[in-house]
């Protein structure tokens, strides 16, 4: 793991932060939105829409796929979660107060994902794109490799 961010990453802390954020934006974090966010925050790995739906149902909630997709759209719009296209799955954002694209370090061995959220990388992409007269509207960078925990495994390949 890289240097620990100074904030609490527990699901309850994330929900509390999300509630506050939605309140300041005049948005309503409904019970379903809260439940979906909690499921994504609690998941150790990126989680897909159908796995979220399964979990909602196991909690005794009825949720039709369109409802869950609309809920995910809301969470994406608010920057509370990110969608990883290569995995077709969602991860909680580590810093939702600040709008950003995010760079994701996806471990090919254990499937865990870390978020870099580097303003420098984001700015570089905007600059390089501008140089070829391309205006960036959104960017999500997905980087494949091995996480620190997997690199430490004695059975792992020596890089
Ligand atoms: Zn983020
Ligand atoms: Zn790993």
Gist of the model:
This protein is an alpha+beta fold and 159 residues long. 42% of the residues lie in helices and 13% in strands.
Keyphrases for this structure?
binds zinc ion; 159 residues; alpha+beta; 42% helix; 3-stranded mixed β-sheet; single chain; Arc Repressor Mutant, subunit A; disordered N terminus
Write a structural description.
- The structure is a single chain.
- This protein is of the alpha+beta class.
- It has a single domain, classed as Winged helix-like DNA-binding domain superfamily/Winged helix DNA-binding domain (Arc Repressor Mutant, subunit A, Orthogonal Bundle).
- It is 42% helix and 13% strand.
- The protein has helices at 11-24, 31-42, 49-58, 65-77, 119-131, 148-152, and strands spanning 81-84, 89-92, 103-107, 113-115, 141-145.
- The strands form two sheets. It has a three-stranded mixed beta sheet with strand order 4-3-5, with no helix packed on it.
- The longest helix is centred in the first third of the chain and has 14 residues, at 11-24.
- It is globular, with a radius of gyration of 17 Å.
- It binds zinc ion (2 copies).
- One zinc ion binds at residues 82, 93-95, 100, 102, 115, 117.
Furnish the topology, listing elements before pairings:
Layout: H1 11-24, H2 31-42, H3 49-58, H4 65-77, E1 81-84, E2 89-92, E3 103-107, E4 113-115, H5 119-131, E5 141-145, H6 148-152
Parallel strand pairs: 3-5
Antiparallel strand pairs: 1-2, 3-4
Bound molecules: zinc ion (2 copies).
Q: Which class of secondary structure composition applies to the elements? A: alpha+beta
Biggest sheet character:
3 strands, mixed
Q: Kindly state the percentage of residues in helix.
A: 40-55%
Mean pLDDT: 89
Strand fraction:
5-15%
Please work out how many helical segments DSSP would assign. Answer: 6
> Strands of the biggest beta sheet: in what spatial order?
4-3-5
Pattern of helices and strands = HHHHEEEEHEH
Name of the top-level CATH class? Mainly Alpha
Pick out the low-confidence regions.
1-6
């Amino acid at each position: 793991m890289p240097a620990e961010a100074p904030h609490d990453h527990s699901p309850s802390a994330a929900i509390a932060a999300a509630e506050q954020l939605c309140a300041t934006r005049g948005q309503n974090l409904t019970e379903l939105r809260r439940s979906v966010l909690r499921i994504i925050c609690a998941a150790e790995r990126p989680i897909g829409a159908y796995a979220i739906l399964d979990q909602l149902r196991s909690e005794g909630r009825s949720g039709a796929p369109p409802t869950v997709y609309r809920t995910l759209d809301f969470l994406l719009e608010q920057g509370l979660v990110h969608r990883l296209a290569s995995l077709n799955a969602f991860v909680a954002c580590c810093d939702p107060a600040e709008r950003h694209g995010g760079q994701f370090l996806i471990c090919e061995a254990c499937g865990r994902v870390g978020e870099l959220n580097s303003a420098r990388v984001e700015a570089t992409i905007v600059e390089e794109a501008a140089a070829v007269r391309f205006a960036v509207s959104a960017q999500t960078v997905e980087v494949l490799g091995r996480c620190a925990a997997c690199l430490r495994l004695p059975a792992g390949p020596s890089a």
